[in-house]
Amino acid sequence: MWQDAQLNRIASTLSECGYVVLDKALPDELCRQLAYEARNDMQAYYREAGVGRGGLPLQDKNIRGDQITWLSGQTPVQSEWLHHMEALRVALNERLFLGLFSFESHYAHYAPGAFYQKHLDAFRGRSNRILSTVFYLNEAWQSNWGGELGLYSEHNQEELLEKVEPMFGRMVIFLSDTFPHEVKAASKDRYSIAGWFRVNSSDSKQIDPNA
Ligand code: OGA
Ligand code: MN
Fold this sequence. Notes:
Layout (H helix, E strand, L loop, with lengths): L3 H14 L1 E4 L5 H12 L7 E2 L18 E4 L5 H21 L5 E9 L5 E4 L9 E8 L12 E4 L7 E5 L6 E5 L5 E3 L6 E9 L13
Antiparallel strand pairs: 1-9, 2-3, 3-4, 4-11, 5-10, 6-9, 6-11, 7-8, 7-10
Helix pairs in contact: 1-3, 2-3
This protein binds N-oxalylglycine and manganese (II) ion.
The site of N-oxalylglycine (OGA) has 10 residues, from β10 and β11.
């Protein structure tokens, strides 16, 4: 599972910067199994992802072109993934007092050419998504294939803070309502798991941007 030193670094970087990029975040074997499942066993279950702003989720490929399928823990590898993320949830609560209550996640597949325009994962005060996580499942990904995650400043939507290549085993964690971010189109299939730690506020009736 997670090492204490690693958890301390995640917590301190999150509190200083609001985001953190981790390489080799999880055991190699788990990464490989997740990558295999994303590309094979789950293939029949992907659906076009929706976008929404407090209404019904709509599908609009000019905004986002990925296909998603939610993880429910129904396979041993999904259950192991959820155990790791549960341990992370508890560790972050201990260190940052965030009151994170639950975690939800989906596999995402961006076919060549698919992208996700700049967006926030939560609208301030109107969502219970607190922390976003993205975990990349692309073995031997090459820089010239594109598909970067662009993370922008909360103060200036045009100021690029970080360009993250979707390398195998890399995890990005960031405050959901703070950083505008986008996914650039790639020339190859791009697989990841997007997840959100939530607080338990039942008064949030809004549908999140990417429900
Ligand atoms: C998302 C998202 C980023 C990525 O699913 O909301 O922003 O790098 N994903 O896949
Ligand atoms: Mn997002």
